[in-house]
């Protein structure tokens, strides 16, 4: 895909003609021209020279843009977005008005209200005519661009708005000139009545006024269009120009374009961070509102990531550059917004088709109007005035701007709030979503396991045994008196706390040497609670979901219920507690000391705080929510119930998610929300793929929408913004069409015989000028919408009724066993039953071990199902597969 700057376009008819010309170039597969940004995006194999030649042959100019750019804004031409037109048009307008005022004073002030004029012209109608003609010529010269562009386009058989203006003004001037010469003949013949008649046939002021009023409209339109690109220009202006880097032990100030990956740079309080990096030294708060829209500064310390264009607020930071130039988050955001502006929404195609035939149709209507009025007996002047009115009131610009201005403003609003739409298509389609499918891990949940429960086994009196919690003690009482009860509670609480601390020390001693995500969660929890303990000696990760080691001369064990059951007896009461925790979606881990279970710690991937509210908002919009996960159905249902989703589909491998999305798409438009990595097939299959993630994930090809802040609550924000933009486009198109539908018949005099109503060409020009301005101003209203406000959400009717929605998943087992069906029919796949996998980390370990083998093209592992499915290009012996898995410290129980 390449982008070009296009010059010479004045209306939608121009952009339609450029598109048509480029589409004819061999090798071009897709082209989209934006009247708003005067840009063109072309996909295909055609050379840039062929494309530029085609544009020039159509009567316009073109140049390849972005290639000379570098640094943060690479690929996006900031100069092309600058408002160069408004200053030029404003100068033309001022000079035109200065000349028009004396012209109008004589042509209307004197003729209609008898205002005084110089004695040399008083009563001299020829002098007045010459005066008006000369001033009109000056205004026409000042606004010659209308005539040059208009008649050039006509010669290229692509008439545009400038053609209509030029022909209307030229026709008025030509007829007025004819009337002036005819007046001189009448004057010589002393036919004073004829002289006065011809005086009334002067349309010099109309010719001049048309040009001036259209220039007013063009100036307002250019100013308004400039406002629509403010968001993109604002992002580009955020990019720092210099960086303070340390080279050879000395601090140097260099251009940000010269920063290289690995350079060490420093940022002082009040300075912008020049490139994306990692903090090496220092602590500070960084304002990231420019990228994420979040007003609260983010604390940074050693190891934290920082992004270009964010503001260091307090401390001194020393960082290492990790992404520079066009690879920074800011540059990718700019590129996304720019690409979206260069594409066209499907709804724009309606306006484009109309614009392509609009101007020729108007020319035909104007000619027919002129001929018909002559045939019915009206004067030449009356007939010409009606034809000119038709020419100057018709406005293809309003049609051409209706969609792109709303798309551009909507993209700007989204960018300011951390929601990036990659194309105009994604911005339009997101608001039409009926079903949202969400991945669980990393989307609905944080994706980072945390300790949720610490349940020690407390040495208990004879009448109590098993796991005892503080609250359980407090709820017990006897009739032996309040003092005895309080004393017992105090003793029990102290025992519980001692047992809890001992359990945490044992867990910390064992787990701190493990790299498993669940171990990391326990270590972090212990450190947060101020615990210290020496690491266990003779540490070993045991095949079968467990750890063992020596601590203070005592053998410790940790692991799953299955693993611990083979080491020490687990009381039924503890098993019951473990079952209840599992029902809540938690993973219980058991710990053994001296061949006795000393407690259990539950770890879970906790739900994001915003998840329930996000799903509530989606329901308020009439959208169904489905959760997809590879976890077991018990864990998935627990999370789904807490989040409030409509349906849970569990035990789904990454490849099967795409199958689920395909089935959902049969019932309505589907958006898939995921982290953009493992969910890539489903993101691609969905009507709209929404990636949650910033940094390197921001440019994922699989997603159509990127949520920079990684907040789930931006999903309804994206849908809400899309709906508002689509409604704004509908409003713009409605007024653009209705304006022309009402205005053209009025200008043609359709109601003249019924009501005597006729339109002066000058008023037609004024109406034309205001139409485009109004469309652009309506689009600019989008800047004021509150994208997080739910009060104006309009609930749309569910695409799937409750019964049909449930029926859709009656065959869930079929969906979840898609891969199993492959096993039965595809001789090039094998299923390996494995013990020892506990989480996604284990799955990845097994997957990498298997895919490293010759003949294995793909491997998918599921710790919940306890299997790995391998796809083979050639037959691989079972012993080879088994050895690869066992070398990775897992146990193979069967291969089929």
Helical content band: 40-55%
Query: How many distinct helices?
Result: 34
Shape: elongated
Mean pLDDT: 80
Q: Structural class given helices, strands, pairing?
A: alpha+beta
The largest β sheet comes out as: 7 strands, mixed
Low-confidence stretches: 67-75, 462-485, 811-827
Q: Could you give the order of strands across the largest sheet? A: 14-26-25-24-15-22-23
Strand content: 15-25%
Radius of gyration computed on alpha carbons: 37 Å
Number of strands: 30
End-to-end Cα distance, whole Å, is: 47 Å
Compact description:
Helix content is about 50%, strand content about 20%. It is α+β, with helices and mostly antiparallel strands and about 900 residues long.
Report on the structure:
By secondary structure, the protein is of the alpha+beta class. It contains 34 helices and 30 strands. A seven-stranded mixed beta sheet has the order 14-26-25-24-15-22-23, sandwiched between helices. Strand 18 (546-551) and strand 19 (554-559) form a beta hairpin. The two termini are 47 Å apart.
Write the layout of secondary structure elements.
Blueprint: E1 2-7, H1 12-23, E2 28-34, E3 39-44, H2 48-57, E4 61-64, H3 78-81, H4 85-113, H5 125-142, H6 144-155, H7 161-188, H8 192-200, H9 204-228, H10 230-238, E5 242-247, E6 250-255, E7 264-267, E8 276-281, E9 284-287, H11 289-292, E10 298-300, E11 305-306, E12 311-312, E13 317-323, H12 329-342, H13 348-375, H14 380-393, H15 396-416, E14 419-421, H16 424-430, E15 435-439, H17 440-444, E16 445-456, H18 470-475, H19 482-511, H20 517-528, E17 537-542, E18 546-551, E19 554-559, H21 561-565, H22 572-583, E20 587-593, E21 596-607, H23 611-620, E22 624-628, H24 633-643, E23 647-649, H25 654-665, E24 670-674, H26 680-685, E25 688-692, E26 705-707, H27 714-748, H28 752-755, H29 761-780, H30 802-808, H31 812-816, H32 818-825, E27 829-835, H33 840-851, E28 856-862, E29 867-872, H34 878-887, E30 891-895
């Amino acid at each position: 895909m390449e982008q070009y700057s296009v010059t010479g376009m004045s209306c939608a008819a121009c952009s339609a003609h450029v598109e048509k010309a480029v589409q004819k170039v061999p090798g071009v597969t897709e082209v989209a021209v934006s009247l708003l940004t005067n840009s063109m995006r072309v996909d295909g194999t055609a050379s840039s020279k062929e494309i530029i030649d085609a544009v020039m042959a159509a009567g316009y100019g073109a140049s390849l843009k972005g290639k000379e750019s570098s640094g943060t804004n690479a690929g996006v031409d900031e100069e092309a977005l600058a408002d160069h037109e408004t200053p030029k048009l404003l100068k033309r307008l001022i000079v035109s008005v200065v000349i028009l005022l004396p012209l109008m004073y004589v042509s209307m002030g004197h003729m209609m209200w008898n205002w005084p004029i110089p004695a040399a012209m008083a009563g001299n109608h020829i002098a007045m005519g010459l005066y008006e003609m000369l001033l009109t010529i000056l205004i026409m010269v000042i606004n010659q661009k209308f005539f040059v562009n208009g008649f050039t386009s006509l010669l290229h058989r692509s008439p545009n708005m400038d053609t209509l203006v030029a022909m209307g003004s030229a026709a008025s001037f030509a007829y007025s000139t004819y009337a002036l010469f005819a007046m001189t003949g009448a004057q010589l013949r002393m036919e004073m009545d004829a002289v006065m008649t011809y005086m009334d046939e002067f349309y010099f002021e109309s010719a001049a006024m048309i040009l001036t009023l259209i220039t007013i409209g063009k100036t307002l339109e250019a100013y308004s269009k400039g406002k629509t690109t403010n968001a993109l220009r604002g992002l580009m202006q955020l990019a720092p120009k210099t960086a303070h880097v340390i080279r050879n032990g000395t601090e140097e100030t260099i251009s940000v374009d010269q920063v290289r990956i690995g350079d060490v740079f420093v940022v002082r309080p009040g300075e912008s961070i020049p490139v994306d990096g990692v903090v090496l030294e220092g602590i500070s708060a960084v304002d990231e509102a420019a990228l994420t829209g979040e007003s609260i500064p983010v604390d940074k310390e050693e190891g934290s990531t920082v992004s270009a264009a964010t503001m260091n607020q307090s401390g001194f930071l020393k960082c290492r550059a990790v992404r520079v130039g066009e690879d920074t988050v800011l540059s990718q955001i700019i590129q996304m917004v720019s690409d979206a502006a260069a594409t066209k929404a499907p709804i724009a195609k309606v306006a484009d088709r109309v614009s392509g035939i609009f101007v020729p149709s108007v020319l035909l209507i104007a000619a027919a109007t002129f001929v018909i009025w002559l045939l019915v007996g009206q004067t030449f002047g009356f007939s010409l005035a009606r034809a000119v009115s038709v020419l100057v009131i018709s406005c293809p610009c309003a049609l051409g701007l209706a969609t792109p201005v709303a798309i551009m403003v909507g993209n700007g609003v989204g960018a300011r709030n951390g929601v990036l739409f990659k194309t105009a298509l994604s911005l339009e389609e997101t608001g039409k979503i009926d079903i949202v499918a969400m991945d669980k891990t990393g989307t609905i949940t944080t994706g980072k396991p945390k300790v949720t429960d610490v349940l020690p086994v407390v040495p208990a009196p004879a009448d109590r045994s098993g796991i005892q919690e503080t609250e359980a003690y407090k709820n017990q009482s006897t009739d032996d008196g309040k003092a005895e009860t309080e004393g017992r509670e105090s003793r029990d609480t102290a025992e519980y706390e001692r047992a809890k601390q001992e359990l945490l020390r044992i867990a910390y001693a064992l787990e701190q040497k493990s790299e498993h995500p669940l171990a990391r969660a326990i270590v972090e929890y212990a450190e947060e609670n101020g615990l210290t303990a020496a690491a266990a000696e003779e540490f070993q990760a045991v095949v079968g979901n467990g750890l063992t080691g020596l601590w203070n001369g005592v053998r410790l064990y940790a692991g799953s219920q299955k693993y611990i059951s083979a080491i020490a007896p687990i009381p039924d009461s503890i098993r019951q507690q473990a079952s209840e925790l599992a029902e809540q979606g938690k993973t219980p881990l058991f710990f053994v000391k001296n061949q006795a279970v000393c407690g259990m710690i539950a770890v879970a991937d906790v739900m994001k705080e915003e998840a329930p509210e996000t799903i509530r908002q989606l329901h308020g919009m009439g959208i169904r929510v489905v959760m997809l996960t590879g976890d077991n159905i018990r864990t998935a249902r627990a999370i789904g119930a807490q989040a409030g989703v409509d349906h849970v589909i569990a035990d789904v491998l990454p490849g099967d998610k795409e199958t689920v999305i395909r089935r959902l798409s049969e019932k309505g438009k589907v958006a898939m929300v995921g982290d953009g990595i493992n969910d890539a097939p489903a993101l691609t299959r969905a009507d709209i793929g929404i990636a949650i993630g910033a940094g390197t994930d921001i440019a994922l090809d699989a997603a159509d929408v990127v949520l920079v802040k990684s907040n789930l609550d931006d999903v309804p924000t994206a849908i809400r913004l899309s709906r508002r933009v689509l409604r704004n486009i509908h409003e713009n198109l409605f007024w653009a069409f209705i304006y022309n539908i009402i205005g053209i018949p009025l200008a043609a005099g359709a109601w003249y015989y019924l009501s005597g109503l006729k339109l002066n060409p000058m008023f037609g020009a004024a109406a034309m000028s205001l139409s485009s301005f109004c469309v652009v101003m309506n689009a600019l209203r989008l800047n004021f919408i509150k994208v997080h406000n739910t009060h104006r959400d309009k609930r749309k009717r569910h695409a799937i009724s409750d019964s049909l929605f449930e029926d859709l998943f009656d065959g869930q087992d079929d969906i979840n066993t898609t891969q199993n069906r492959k096993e039965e029919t595809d001789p090039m796949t094998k299923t390996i039953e494995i013990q020892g996998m506990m989480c996604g980390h284990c799955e990845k370990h097994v997957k990498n071990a298997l895919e490293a083998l010759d003949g294995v093209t793909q491997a998918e592992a599921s710790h919940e199902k306890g299997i790995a499915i391998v796809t083979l290009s050639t037959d691989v012996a079972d012993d080879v597969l088994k050895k690869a898995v066992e070398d990775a410290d897992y146990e193979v129980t069967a291969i089929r």
